[in-house]
Description:
The chain is an alpha+beta fold and 234 residues long. 44% of the residues lie in helices and 10% in strands. The chain is built from nine helices and six strands. Helix 4 crosses helix 9, helix 7 (169-182) runs antiparallel to helix 9 (205-226) and helix 8 (188-194) crosses helix 9 (205-226).
Amino acid sequence: MALDVYVGPLTLYYAGQWENMGQAEARERGVQYHIIRTRREDDAVTDPAKIRPALVDWQKLLSDALGSNIAEPLDWDEASEDYMTGRPDWEGYGALILWAAYAEHRDLVPPPRYVEFSADPAYKRSTAEDATNYFPHVIRDIDFWLPSAFDFTFKANAPNDDIATFGSSFTLLANLRTLNDTTWQADRATIEKWGEHRPASDGSLEDMAKYGFSDMFLLAEYACQRRLPMKLDY
């Protein structure tokens, strides 16, 4: 199952008025692309004009619930038609999480290639209840990053009423910059190049982490510049 990342107004996302990387490539090649979801949404509303008011109300409710925990109310433009997507896939995203976890625990030796991160010793340390994180908005199990500057993560109802974990796109971008500064020290042109070609599945953990980093860094940058939410899609 592919992992995409979407940055844009949630109205477009929930209305299905956006293309993931696979859809865009299929359209350019003139072939069909089928999305298989883990939950059926045959009765989903797809008219943006009907969806938008509910999402604006949800944004205000969430902002009010956060109250003084955030410096200013949540306020992004749900009428915007701007969006950006990337496809780090689970291996690229998971390798990035592992790379960050091992950057936090340098006494541990990282595996040479990507492994399922949930059972990894560095990941377990970084996600323990009493853990101190340098890269929390990279490592923690986050579904949405909101265009607001705060350090914590929290659980709340997503617009579709699922319980989701939320973080900050500004903190995510800061975490990614610090991770780059303390490990690779790559310039932006190099970071962009890392995302041009997906490494082989049996490639090194570092190469796969660089691939995932490239997508997440560029998407977080876009999310902060446009002040739009960022969301995992799978």
